Q: What sequence folds into this?
């Protein structure tokens, strides 16, 4: 028989975290969506030998709607889309197309060279190709025999 020591601090912390997550999912998430769209976007970040590739879904956004900034090792992506208004469309029963803005900032795993960065939007996906800065790339040091 195994005896497990009860640690009330750990158990209460877990309950508090669960309640916080439940509150965020039930209240904060829907309020952000109702106020004009999501306030953030998800990122996929892939580090390769010479570059970092970041992908983010931006459906309905044009390249003019999106701003990408790199400061040091922090990447910031912002976007803003205004609602299109048509006067004689009829009565809406459901209107789920959202307008609004988003912002997402994250620290990159390596310092990049922003002067050689490339960005494109295709099929609603923003793709950033960020070359890793030469200063932080690993250098091979040859060993000489005496």
A:
């Amino acid at each position: 028989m195994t005896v497990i020591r009860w640690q009330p601090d750990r158990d209460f912390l877990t309950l508090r975290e669960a309640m916080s997550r439940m509150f965020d999912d039930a209240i904060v998430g829907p309020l952000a969506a109702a106020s004009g769209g999501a306030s953030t976007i998800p990122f996929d970040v892939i580090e390769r030998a010479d570059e970092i590739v970041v992908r983010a879904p931006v459906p309905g956004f044009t390249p003019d709607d999106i701003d990408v900034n790199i400061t040091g090792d922090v990447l910031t992506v912002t976007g803003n889309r205004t609602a299109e208004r048509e006067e004689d469309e009829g009565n809406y029963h459901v209107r789920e197309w959202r307008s609004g803005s988003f912002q997402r900032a994250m620290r990159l795993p390596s310092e990049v060279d922003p002067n050689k960065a490339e960005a494109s939007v295709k099929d609603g996906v923003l793709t950033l190709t960020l070359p890793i800065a030469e200063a932080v790339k690993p250098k091979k040091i040859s060993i000489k025999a005496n």
The first strand starts at residue 44 and ends at 47. Residues 17 and 23 are 10 Å apart (CA to CA). The mean pLDDT is 81.
